[in-house]
Amino acid sequence: MTSAREIxxxxxxxxxxxxxxxxxxxxxxxxxxxxxxxxxxxxxRKPPPFVVHLFKSNPELCYCAWHGRKIxxxxxxxxxxxxxxxSDLFVHPKYQDCKIGKQLMDRVWRDAPGMxxxxxxxxxxxQAIGIYSRYGMAVLESLIxxxxxxxxxxxxxxxxxxxxxxxxxxxxxxxxAQESHIRGYSHEAEWKYWLANKNYxxxxxxxxxxxxxxxxxxxxxxxxxxxxxSNRYLVRVIQEYLAAVEFKKDTVARTFCPTNNTSLxxxxxxxxxxxxxxxxxxxxxxYGDMQRxxxxxxxxx
Length: 301
Ligand SMILES: CC(C)(COP(=O)(O)OP(=O)(O)OC[C@H]1O[C@@H](n2cnc3c(N)ncnc32)[C@H](O)[C@@H]1OP(=O)(O)O)[C@@H](O)C(=O)NCCC(=O)NCCS
Prior knowledge:
- The protein is an alpha+beta fold.
- It has two domains: 4-114, Aminopeptidase, CATH 3.40.630; 146-294, Aminopeptidase (3-Layer(aba) Sandwich).
- Helices cover 30% and strands 32% of the residues.
- The strands form two sheets. Strands 1-2-3-4-5-12-6-11 form an eight-stranded mixed beta sheet, sandwiched between helices. The chain has a five-stranded antiparallel beta sheet with strand order 7-8-9-10-13, with helices on both faces.
- It is globular, with a radius of gyration of 20 Å.
- The structure holds coenzyme A.
- Coenzyme A binds next to helix 1, strand 4, helix 3, strand 5 and helix 4.
């Protein structure tokens, strides 16, 4: 077993992001193998663009653990407003259980009066849930990764909501205001990234002249974040999106559904979505209204 003294911790540099991404994938695949899931095999030749965005938005909250010249652990957090959020914490499988995860947590952790702390992690990894519990966070919600292959997808009926695809500044200001209520803080840095990237599409949904919800989607079938002025409208927004969507062949539609949102959960099941993976939202403060919010990529929630 590697001794704690042989491990050093350094702030991450841009050039560390590719080897760090390989450690993340190794740790993920180790976990997937142990729980009977398919391994992720795509090669990593450049840093994942969204990780680069998160890293650049606050490089001081990103650390690597090193054993000699090898990266063996990676931790990345973001602070948005008064909310600290852990985006990534991964340790090379051969180096796990040596307190590297805790050491990385200590370095990326930030606290201040009024600050809340949250993250999403795998519902089946008791070690990860255990570490985060030590920092005061507890499981508040379960989110199931739900997916529908084209051949299983059952298109729902249109809802009558109108769709706006040309997003104005006023639409964006409305989304930021909604997100402050429904998820506790707005996502402005992420929205800038998403809107500047051609792989993402944002739609605002209206009933008459009134904005009632929004939904971000990616070209490869992921939808979320989505939000709405009420639970009923969130379900209608997702139904409207699914009623009109054209998936390319081999695309798998995916989203992280909060299971407490039973109406949304049942809509997805009725559209042919299957349960893929259980993840959990942990926090030291109750925030976000999962009846009106469908989270994004869980590295930002
Ligand atoms: C989760 C992970 C980052 C932890 O890193 P690590 O270096 O292996 O963990 P550490 O040795 O620092 O953690 C040990 C701590 O885990 C906690 N722990 C472990 N199992 C636990 C359990 N069943 N219940 C409660 N706490 C537990 C304890 O607090 C323990 O510290 P202590 O013995 O001083 O109390 C790492 O194992 C990993 O990469 N796993 C796979 C990927 C993953 O799940 N990442 C989290 C994604 S957000």
